[in-house]
Amino acid sequence: MTTKGSSTIRLLKLTEIDELDELEQIWLGDYRELEEILQHTNDNDQAIQTELHEKCQQVQGHTHMVQALLCGMICDRTRSQQFLRYLHLIVKDGYAVCVKQLEKLARDKFPKMNDRNAAQPSQQQMQLLWVVREFVNLKVQGIDKVCIALLRQIQGGNVRSATNRWLNTNLCMLFQESKTWLYEQTQLIPMVFYTFCRLAADHADPKYDKLRRMEGQLCCDLFRDKFSECKVIGREAVRLLQQVCKIPEFEGLWEDILNNPQQFGGMTDISDLFSVRTPKDFLQSRLTPQMEEQLLFIMERVTMGQQQRYQRWFMQKWGLMEPGGDALIPDLVRYICGFHHPSNEVLRSNLVQRWAVVGWLLKCAKTPTSVANIKLAMFYDWLFYSPRNDSVMNIEPAALLITRSIPKWLDITVDLMEFMFALADLWSKPSVDRCREGIFHAAADCVQKGVIKSWAQVSTCPQINPVLRARVRAQFRGFCPGDPEEIAVEDVKVMGRCALSSSLIGPSGVWIQKLVKSWGGTDTITSK
């Protein structure tokens, strides 16, 4: 039996300057042991099986042989079927070791399984997906966790990479072809919907029609057939569906959500989804593990004033300035606001703060639509904020960016405040009062929990438009020293109409109107 020697196979594509990888070294060591068995048994299948079973009786022998066979399946494509057969014969733990090792490989090593800047996926990456497909066909318990780890490796906003498109396409195909199995995976279903609903927005170009149709069909089937699982996504599902609702594959689903919501498990209307705070792991899932690690490095290891070179490197690494690359930025902002909540010690330190990172990301946007989507990601939790159910850490970055920008970047303060109020007024008729109430509670919580001292620094700033300052005093009544007593709470609605005047609505309102119009339906508000 001829096999590739362990000196010629590689699990990872490391460069000369990379340190040796512990997992790869362990797997290659186990594979060398497997090679010895294959060689001295002289291709006798029965003898090979006997040797493997004997090895598995030794301390840690089962784990070593499982890792050896996994290594062979991934690194030696010509023998992968035979290695898989041997694996089936020796497994005695329900594939638990296999699943654990595959999850680690998919989560931590997937990018290293290919050369840097490679134009196509590597054999190792393709074989890993082949192994996962085989385990899905076997309905191996726990393989859904490996699928979730692979979903994280698909980068949003990156249609340039053939490897990224390949992984996107093949995972979508796997779930379509294995829908019976998928429908039994309650933890995987919402993650699949969330991932491909988000990615479909990147594939509006006609050249990606086939992929987008497949994503749309999968997402619509999941939402209709498995709504009870998908609804746990909560308000983020609405934000993502809003981005794709004009794509033909999603139009029918969006119309039913707006006009016939009762068919989805008794949902009253779309506000039922607004009420559900999105679990943090969904927000984390749209950053690759490597991307998350590097973003956290900026916020946890770099001091304020020293971040520029790290930010430039991050932009280049993840293609934020490439065509379509800024579509990733809302994912980053949602992660920063909703997932990464630093300790009080970090908040009091001189490390780069979240508001500064969000401000930098906002400046990376290249089109008005991108800017509007980033601001929406920043303020999304404000619209439905409940002090009882939501965390002030979700709204802290926007509040601090507004107030900290006043001394040097007043235009940012004005732009963000205009956007926030226009968002509340333009979102939808059934929710307009609720959105204004949510913004009030968010602003109040920022003061009550010490994020900022008060909103007076905005409402009393003479350089800010008087109409906007009046709206701030009215909307945040009680949290701006010098509030005019004659402005009652119900007058906020009047001030809301003022916010739509030509002196205030500006680009923010125009682009919010475009976003809202993309929803379709009859519940949109237009300025008068």
TrEMBL record:
One of its GO terms (cellular component) is cytoplasm. Residues 61-473 form the Integrator complex subunit 3 N-terminal domain. This is Integrator complex subunit 3 N-terminal domain-containing protein. It comes from Guillardia theta (strain CCMP2712) (Cryptophyte). InterPro entries: INTS3, INTS3_N.
